[in-house]
Every structure is written in structure tokens, then in C-alpha cells.
Design goal:
There is one protein chain. The protein has 19 helices and no strands. By secondary structure, the protein is mostly helical. Helix 2 crosses helix 8, helix 3 packs antiparallel against helix 10 and helix 13 runs parallel beside helix 19. The longest helix has 41 residues. The radius of gyration is 22 Å and the shape is globular. The relative contact order is 0.18. Its main location: membrane. InterPro entries: Na-dicarboxylate_symporter, Na:dicarbo_symporter_sf. It is found in: Cell membrane. It is a multi-pass membrane protein. This is Dicarboxylate symporter family protein.
């Protein structure tokens, strides 16, 4: 299926899903709506399982081949340092923007939230950040176990070590590199077949959510949701604007190219679902395979800017709702804490809520305030996922440009590619 046709079908699935979900919620019994939501979600589960089936072999094959083709440790260190620098800058901007907007708009004022106990938020337990916990989570004891659990950070660490080792042994590594290169192309072809199920998946996910929760959820929490989506919109403008300044007007061609994977991430609330498509669109844009396959997997562990903006926005929102004032110093401290904890929670289920819970406990804000987020979090997760996809794509393009790659008409200069 052609890219434009697939995008059209995904949008059509989204619209039909909203209509069907609204009709079921409005004209059927709550029991039927709940049953429908439970049964139709099987399509979403199947699609996300198919995507997860692809992720591990795709990351290993593309990342290892990318590192092996870089040639030497000096080049790898240079690219990695540039990638890390960009991701730290993006994290700082996103968390700071969340703090600034929530302080200006004050969506939590006047709610006067009081909860008797924190037991209403079962399943969301704060996990304190520590270097020991982070390193223990990042280093795999078994690559097979990491692949089985789709631990992206652990897979990335293993792939980096494997890629460096293959690069070090030179010609003897070529057979393995060739096999992994073929595996990467195989996984991308397989992705094309899996993506044929995307429109049905979007319909199922949206209709299930609306049928059970109703559009009233969006209306009642509309102010909070609207202000957070305004924050995401501003974040998009800042990141795209910086990219235009550093790369050129061709950035707009990149944004248009990744609109399909970003839309898929939005409708399925899964950044993982968009990984293969984003990798393919980056290469079509002109980012070399060695850069795209190196930067993108790392971004999925360290550059979740949509989620980081949400964490800072949500923590201050809950504090406002509980009538708790945080000084400027405390908010600066919170920014620094979130810079760390948002990295330490990679791979944790419902990671944003876990990070928020951990941050609330450190500032003596009632964890029961998470109740205010539970009803609308699935809708907000859609925007966070799409933003994560967009920021990772821009990050890969910036690193490529920094390495001397040129993306055609509309880019600054006519730079020569580096020889790796």
C-alpha cells in the first residue's frame, strides 16, 4: 500500500472510530460498551504485538550495522557525544517549557483536590531514582531475555558493544555485518506487511476508548488537556524552528515525511509502533543509514521529550490542585530531578505516571493527586507519543547534518559527507 493511501486509511479509521465509539457510548448500555471495548481491543493488542515482534531484531541489525560501518571508535565517540548533547538540550527545553506554561496558565487553580488515601491509584508506585537502579536496568544479563521483554535500552547497550567489537576485528566481521544488513532489510519489508493492519488498529483503539469513556471525558477535562496540547504545540514549534535554523527549510519536508509514523504513534499511543516507519522516512529524507540506525534507538531511551514535558506539567498541576505552592528554587530542583528520573524509567510500564509519582513523593505532594490524571492520561499519551517520534526524527537529522550530510534542496550549504 502506498504511503499516501495508508495515511488516508489511518485518518479514515480514526474518524470512523470516533463516530462508532460515540454512538455506542450514547445509545447502548454501559455493560455493552464495556464489553465492546474489551473485545475490539484484540485488534490493537495483535498489532502492537506484531510491532514488538519486529522491534528487537530491527534495532540490533540496524544499530550494529550502523556502528560497524562507522569504521573507528573516534567516529563513534564523536557521533555519540553529539547525539547525547542534542538529547540533553531537548530534555531541558521540554521540561522547562512544561514548567513555564503550567505556571502561566495555572490549570489546577480552584480544583481544591482532597483525597483521603492514596489507595485510589493502585498500580502506580513511585520508584526512587538511583545510579545503581539505572545501571542495573540498562545492562542486560542476557540479550535473549532483553529481547523477550523488549527492553530497548538493554538491547541498545548490547548492540553498541557488538557493533564496536565487529568494527574492531575488521574484515573478519564482514560476513556477520552482511547477514545483519540483510536482516535489517528483511525487517523493514516485514514492517510494510504489518502496517497494512494499521487502519483497523486505529479504528479499534479509538472506538474502544470513546465507547467506554465517552466524549464527556474530553469535555470535563478539556481545559487541562487543551493547555497541555498547547504546550506540546509550542514544543513542536520550538524544535522545528531550531531545526530550520540549523538545517534549513528542508526540515519541513522531513516533518511531512514523518507525519505518517507520528499519526500512527498518536492513534495507537505507542512510540514503538512508529519506530520502523520513522527509520524508513529518515533514510528517504537523506539521513544515512549509519546515523539514523544509531541515533533513533538511543532516542527511544533518552529523548522522550513529550513525556518529559508532561511530567513537569502534571506535577505542578497536581500541586496547584492540592493548593501546594512550590517556590522557584523547588521547581528548578524538580527540573534537574526530572532530567535524571525520566532517563531512569525507560522500559517501565506507564512510565510517565511512575515518574510523576516518584517526583510527587520527593516534594511532599499527595500521590493521590494522580487520580486527577487517570481518566485523561490515555488521551494525553497520544500526543506525547507523537511528539516523541517527531523529536527523535529531528534529532537524527540534526546529528546527520552536524556530521556533514546534506539533504538536498532547501538545506544550508552543500556540505560534503564525512567519510566513515
Amino acid at each position: 500500500m502506498k504511503s499516501k493511501n495508508l495515511t488516508t486509511m489511518i485518518i479514515l479509521g480514526l474518524i470512523i472510530g470516533i463516530i462508532v465509539g460515540f454512538l455506542i457510548n450514547s445509545f447502548s448500555s454501559p455493560e455493552f460498551a464495556k464489553s465492546y471495548s474489551s473485545e475490539i481491543s484484540i485488534f490493537t493488542d495483535i498489532f502492537l504485538r506484531l510491532i514488538k515482534m519486529i522491534i528487537a531484531p530491527l534495532i540490533i541489525s540496524t544499530l550494529v550495522v550502523g556502528i560497524a560501518k562507522m569504521g573507528d571508535a573516534k567516529t563513534l565517540g564523536r557521533v555519540f557525544s553529539k547525539t547525547l548533547f542534542l538529547f540533553i538540550c531537548a530534555a531541558f527545553i521540554s521540561i522547562l517549557l512544561g514548567l513555564v506554561i503550567v505556571n502561566i496558565l495555572k490549570p489546577g487553580d480552584g480544583i481544591n483536590f482532597v483525597a483521603e488515601t492514596a489507595s485510589a491509584v493502585d498500580g502506580i508506585k513511585p520508584v526512587p531514582f538511583s545510579a545503581k537502579v539505572f545501571i542495573s536496568h540498562a545492562i542486560p544479563t542476557s540479550i535473549v531475555d532483553a529481547m523477550a521483554r523488549n527492553e530497548i535500552l538493554q538491547i541498545v547497550v548490547f548492540s553498541i558493544f557488538m557493533g564496536i567489537s565487529l568494527s574492531a576485528i575488521g574484515e573478519k566481521a564482514q560476513p556477520i555485518v552482511s547477514v545483519l544488513d540483510s536482516l535489517a532489510h528483511l525487517m523493514l519489508k516485514l514492517t510494510g506487511y504489518v502496517m497494512l493492519f494499521a487502519p483497523l488498529t486505529v479504528f479499534a483503539a479509538i472506538s474502544a476508548m470513546i465507547s467506554e469513556r465517552g466524549l464527556s471525558v474530553l469535555v470535563s477535562a478539556g481545559i487541562f488537556m487543551g493547555e497541555f496540547y498547547l504546550t506540546l504545540g509550542l514544543l513542536w514549534l520550538i524544535l522545528i524552528g531550531c531545526s530550520i535554523v540549523l538545517i534549513g527549510r528542508c526540515t519541513l519536508r522531513l516533518i511531512k515525511g514523518i507525519s505518517e509514523p507520528a499519526l500512527l504513534a498518536f492513534t495507537t499511543s505507542s512510540s514503538e509502533a512508529a519506530f520502523p516507519g520513522t527509520l524508513e522516512k529518515l533514510e528517504e529524507f537523506g539521513v544515512s543509514n549509519k546515523i539514523a540506525s544509531f541515533v533513533l534507538p538511543i532516542g527511544y531511551s533518552f529523548n522522550l521529550v513529550g513525556s518529559m514535558a508532561y511530567c513537569s506539567f502534571a506535577v505542578i498541576f497536581i500541586a496547584q490542585a492540592c493548593n501546594i505552592h512550590l517556590s522557584m528554587g523547588e521547581q528548578v530542583t524538580m527540573l534537574l530531578i526530572l532530567m535524571l528520573t525520566s532517563k531512569g524509567m525507560a522500559g517501565v510500564p506507564r512510565a510517565s505516571l511512575v515518574v510523576i509519582a516518584a517526583t510527587l513523593s520527593q516534594f511532599n505532594i499527595p500521590e493521590a493527586g494522580l487520580i486527577l490524571l487517570m481518566g485523561v492520561d490515555p488521551f494525553l499519551d497520544m500526543g506525547r507519543s507523537a511528539t516523541n517520534v517527531m523529536s527523535n526524527a529531528i534529532g537524527a537529522a540534526l546529528v546527520g547534518r552536524w556530521e556533514g550530510e546534506h539533504y538536498g534542496e532547501g538545506c544550508h550549504g552543500v556540505a560534503k559527507r564525512r567519510v566513515y
